[in-house]
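Blackboard transcription, Thursday session:
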Amino acid sequence: MNEMLATAPARPSAGLGPRHAASDGPILRVSNLEVTYYTDSGRAKALDDVSFTLNSGEKLGMVGESGSGKSTLALAMMRMIKAPGRIEGGSVVVGGGDLMTLGAEDMRKARLSRIAYIPQGAMNSLNPVMRIGAQMIDAVKSHLPREGRAAIEARCKRALQSVDLDAGVFRMYAHELSGGMKQRVCIAIGILLDPHVIIADEPTSALDVVTQRQVMETIDNVQKAINAAVILIGHDMGLMAQFVDKVAVMYAGRLVEVSTVREMFTDPKHPYSRALISSLPSLGNKGVFQGIPGLAPSLLRLPSGCAFHPRCESAMPHCSTIRPQQQVLPGGRRVTCHLYDGEA
Amino acid sequence: MSTVALSPPIEKRIERPGRFILLLRYLRRNKGLALGVVILLGLVAFTVIGLMTVDLKQAYPLSVAAKKPPSWKYPFGTDFFGRNLLAAMVVGMWQTAFIGVFAGGLGTLIGVVLGFISAYFGKWIDATIRTVCQILTPIPVLLIQVVIAGSLDKRDVTIVTMALIVVLLAWMGPTLVIRAQVLTMKERQFVAVAKLSGVSDLGIIFKEILPCLLPFIAAAFVAQVFSAVFAAFYLAVLGLGPLREPLLGNIIWAAQSQGAFFNGWWWWPIIPSVAMILILGSLALINMGLDELANPRVRRSE
Amino acid sequence: MSLKLVIRRLLFLVLVIWAASTIVFFIPRLSNRNALRERFGELARTGGFSPADLEKIIASMNQQFGLDRPLYEQYWTYLGNILHLDFGYSLYRYPTTVAELIAQSLPWTLGLLLVTTILSFIIGNLLGAVAAWPRAPHWLRAFATPFILLTGVPPVIMGILLLFFIGFRLKWLPLGGAYSVGVVPTWTWTFFFDLMQHQILPALALIFGSVGGWVLSMRGMGVTIQGEDYVNFAEHKGLTGGRIFRDYYLRNAMLPQVTGLALALGTMVTSAIIVEGLFGLPGIGTMLNLAIRANDFPTIYGIVLFITIAVAVLMTIVEFIYPLLDPRVRSS
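(Written on the board underneath:)
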């Protein structure tokens, strides 16, 4: 099946096919996004001043330790942060319009049609008592209420086909599918309306290694077919490196570095990225498994200044007092570290 | 492949608010539990003070003037048979508490023992106990209790026999709950470790498993007290209680038999009804509160 | 559902009925009361016949009811009779059979029970579901709270309170009975109206007395379901709130409630019986009340057995319906 995927011509898109040119400036512009959770034990800043851009057709891998704010970022972009969390500020501009300023009903319509979210579908993301088909149809219907039944069904079946699922899946229930198939169904739902941006939240966790690759290839293929910008959230840097164009590293709610894959692996800028890269096992340093000293900090009591300074090898005196700002280096890399002060 | 490997923690411990503050904060959120406890304490105070100050003979027929509405002399009024309802409430409350705690406690005890035996020894013992529980569960318990109470000689029906009748068919619930808990407990590592290091079966039960089950046993006990009070009340309302005693259900049965509302003696059935609402209501609130405490998923989402 | 499962369920049903019958057969025989002697002793005291006559009558009765035969033989006959729903004769209303008494009063109870069970199930589950739904307006969610507070109140006490406030104080509705005194049952609207007036308070007592339980269990279920991945994903899909509520949240949260309905049937029937007694409606409850007062043991045992069998059968039916609602059970 892998070979088939690789040799197949451009995938049929579920809807209208490629509709936005790749060179039209960034399709996604996230600026100064901030999320705070108000808990019993105090406030936790889960997202702190997060900014980045993404072009159509680009794939961004989002990595970081658990609790670093990757999933919060995804939820914030979908405006799905639930109490006690709150989006405190910032903007998420998709194809020209800021999602943060939309009314509730317009935001509902924007979900799936402009910005789609693909969950960890392997587990429990599909309604156990509805057929797969019904769950796809209701998604289309709630955005295109005037589309005829036959057209909707055809659209859904095209989407299933583009993730290499049999049309028979349409009439099946979630419990009749394997983990990989369920994940494909979730991807098919995500591309039903040809969104500008697709966020895939750890789409390969809980899958076996072979299925992981197949699912990643599926995402790759459908992404190319509709030319969407894709954000892949995960912690498996190795798997990600093979599929994404850019890597973003998060630490304690902040985006500490955004670079291309090549730059990230050959010349990581932020000390945390460096530590991450050198902690990856490789064929060269067999047996030596290097970790990052210290623990990820609690969001409730972040260290002052740069949150990473207690674990940082290159910490300077002012790192513990002054909060570094994100800077765009020549060549477009973004890094949040005092080491590069004045280089922007 | 994981990106991060951990070395020993070097971070300072996070200071947490004191336990008492946390308890108060919790009670502020879990208002039901707080309210239930307050009502129950109020009822206990009423009963204890009543037992010490009220003439308890007036809880029985022909001791005071009959059919008097509530007044300063008789705050709850008197009934058709010449009982002072205040005294009757004090005695009835005490008897209800006795039945509840005695039957609830005994039922919980039987349930815990059977649940442990069933889960710990497994095989045919487990199969037998489970099957018996499953067969008895669908049978409406009250009706069987009606048969038992009805078959007894009226002179044999006392508060104690009431409690025993209630217990007879009220141990299945706790048995199944405790059995399920012990089964999950058995799978935990520390039990396996204890077993491997040669601790005896009884040692494991008393030292390792029982302490972990205390919250569940407490919750089962409150639930049992609730259903025991409920069952005894129903039996009494059907006229199967110890008719001489001022048990709350008996008073309602008597009031209904004499057509209290048709005759305008509204306080006669209303007083024991309000008492029953307070008893069962406080127990239900405590039960729900404990549920919320033991099972955070039920905690309110606000 | 596989045939094996169907057979197992039916076998279980038979076991439950057998267990209930056996309990009802042996418990009275363990006690020292002799129903016949008590009943005819009473008649003898109120005049009519001499003690010698009494012994003769009891002996002949014992023979007629087969009480002189060995216990195991009686037990077999008894089990056989149960199969034909033959519960013997009423002592108090001899020679009416218990089955006839039940048949007379059953429609009343059935009507009351059906209406109140369905209404309280629907109202309770909707209120509970809304109470646990974070996006419902606050005033709507608050509706559930008073019903939750009523959870601990037995329907019979609810009935007394309703009688006091609506019947006694406000005099809006009658204080009891099936229809007004002096009214002749006829197929007219006036009679029907009168009949319904007498049914309102008992029905309300049963509904208010049981709605809280449904609200509470549904709210607990709802809190769990609204955190499920598929409900979140439904929102990510941009579905409207109403659709998520109905198809993703309510449908899944209802499944355990259907099982709960099967388990609650026994309690519902019990409550209905006691409330009927309180209001003096001519149903099975009042029949049981009269039988208890008159020491009419065959009637007590017959009613108890009949209800137990009915509840067990209904539970089995609900269990057979369940797979139609849950595709996961259907295919396994």
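Lecturer's comment: The interface with chain A takes residues 134, 228-230, 232-240, 243, 247-248, 251-252, 255, 325-328, 331 of chain C (CB under 8 Å).
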